[in-house]
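Human: Here is a favour to ask of a fellow structure person. Comparing notes only helps if you start from a blank page. Give me a protein, with the fold worked out from its sequence. Please set it down just below, with no commentary around it:

Assistant:
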Amino acid sequence: MRKRGFGTGTARRSVLTRLAILLAALLPAAGCAGAGALGAGGQTLVIAIVSNPQMEDAVALSHRFEAENPGVHLKFVQLPENQARAKITASVANEGGEFDAVMISNYEAPQWAENGWLENLQPYIDADPSYDDGDFIPSIKDSLSHQGDMHAVPFYGESSFLAYRKDLFAKAGLEMPANPTWDQVQEFARKLNDPANGVAGICLRGKPGWGESLAPFNTVVNTFGGRWYDENWNAQLTSPQFRQAWNFYVDLVRNHGEVGASSAGFQECGNRYGRGQAAMWYDATVMAGTNEDPQSSEVVGKSGYVPAPRKDTDAAGWLYTWSLAIPKVAENKQASWDFLRWMTGKEFVQTVGTEFGWNRVPTGCRMSTYDIPEYREAAEAYAQPTLDAISVADQDHTMTKPVPYEGIQFLSIPEFQDLGTRVSQQLSAAIAGQKSPDAALQQAQEYAATVGKSYQESQ
């Protein structure tokens, strides 16, 4: 898929800096010492992270790092995803210096590296051959690199796939194809939707947020042949292909999806599926570990996993990774790197598997994880499907037309945080029945056209 540049680096930095200033004004100050601060008896590293189950395990094991590094203490600032993004963006863009390490994604990493906001980690990696960055899944590594150098290192990576209840399919006399289409999934959802018994035909995100409902929705747009912009930055949200994807998604969720879909995100869908209240769930590949965890799921061993449903493309999944980076202004970069190395190294995977169970190890980033016998046994149902999904998560496999931006389920432009959220709000309103799909889509088109015009002017 051929892509074109999208504005000068100066223009992009200006947009991000303005966004960061706005976010800083809206957010309360985090209660933390300055980066690299000296606490009683040593140095305190302040690390900003997203609150999720995988990170909770890392925090629980952090005493091991402190024991191996006398005099270094770790302080985690944990926030929900939307708040974490806003706080970290404001701090890093404004060179606030609050954090020694930050948790970011492959949306932020290349842009921030180009802006000079992140420490180049390649010299640290090259100085430690045992870290073995060649072990990272290539697409994940590339998504965190700028000009060939890694500026963030992955904690876990993901694509998307479809989970389905094998027992419910068998009971209904249905068989899931090895590579389902969206039309087939829609028909399965219609037949399996059983609201009288509290079982939805499918769970799909409808919660507003560019990282919530737009993640699965954009993969539908792509495989339906749609795109956000043509090569000249003309907004394409009201094109026939985009409109078809929009109406399909809204209709599928409203007719055969979960109750309260307009406010359901990853967590809500996961809870519902884990309680046996959905026949299918299309979402991030990391969901499989939770689905198969006896401590959190009532459907262990009852699910099958197949590639993301498609229409006009070979594949249709997304590519995403939560990673760790060091702000350029961090004072003690070596200590920060030591922490990053500990948390993203091969040894950490072994520790999590031994301490908490192999279904809870960080996946989707290191190839060696998939060679661990204990993990392969625990993840037999989803290990290979996860790798297969990540391997084809690129524009060449998931799109039908050239676009002027990077990204699959997001657009790698600084304006997308705001634009994507606004469009997702329109999608959610259509799902909730608060607006007609056509009216919501027209408003979304106007938002996109405004952003596109700014890129046309800079060409």
User: Anything to note?
Assistant: The chain has two domains: 9-157+321-380, 160-317+392-458. The longest helix spans residues 437-458.
